[in-house]
Write a structure and sequence with these properties.
This protein is of the alpha+beta class. Helices cover about 40% and strands about 25% of the residues.
Length: about 180
């Protein structure tokens, strides 16, 4: 049995893509996943399954479409992978609510990397690592041009969480 964390992109933002967390947990249990939990209302699903991550991503994506009537990207990591993301944070002294990690379904291409570099302000260091992008928005996300355009640069196969959220999810996995 593997513990997984699924990140759902762009749910519960304003009036679009509404998913109630109890219904999400119920859907996951109907797929045969066990020890299902959610963290906050932004689409962080923790569960155990015997299937491979790619199969879990496909199942969840299809089940969300079938259950809730819309398509979203779902990115899945194991608890060990999530721990590694946290351990490899290149900005450990940054504010945990301003250091973000974008979880990518595929590694970023050269063009995306160049666009991030061109748009990032001097005080917004970033690091591409495997299927993640770390950004330290040390002056906040609100006025950042990079934060505003990040998803359009990287593409739809990404979802962003703060290091604070990642740390909480790691903690939840360790308590299982």
């Amino acid at each position: 049995m593997t513990t997984y964390i699924a990140f759902l992109r762009a749910i519960n933002l304003g009036a679009t893509n509404k998913i109630a967390m109890p219904k999400l947990r119920s859907m996951a249990e109907e797929l045969g996943y066990s020890d299902v939990a959610t963290y906050i209302n932004s689409g962080n699903l923790i569960f155990s399954a015997t299937k491979e991550a790619a199969e879990v991503e496909r199942e969840l994506t299809k089940a969300i479409k079938d259950t809730f009537g819309f398509s979203i990207d779902v990115t899945v990591r194991t608890d060990a992978q999530l721990r590694s993301v946290l351990d490899k944070n290149p900005y450990p002294d940054g504010n945990a609510s301003q250091v973000t990690v974008a979880f990518l379904t595929e590694a970023a291409d050269k063009k995306a990397k160049e666009q991030v570099a061109a748009l990032a302000a001097e005080h917004e260091p970033f690091t591409f690592a495997d299927r993640c992008v770390y950004v330290n928005y040390s002056h906040g996300l609100g006025g950042s041009k990079l934060a505003q355009k990040f998803n359009s640069i990287i593409g739809s196969g990404s979802t962003v969480r703060t290091i604070r959220t990642v740390a909480k999810l790691v903690e939840m996995c360790e308590k299982r």
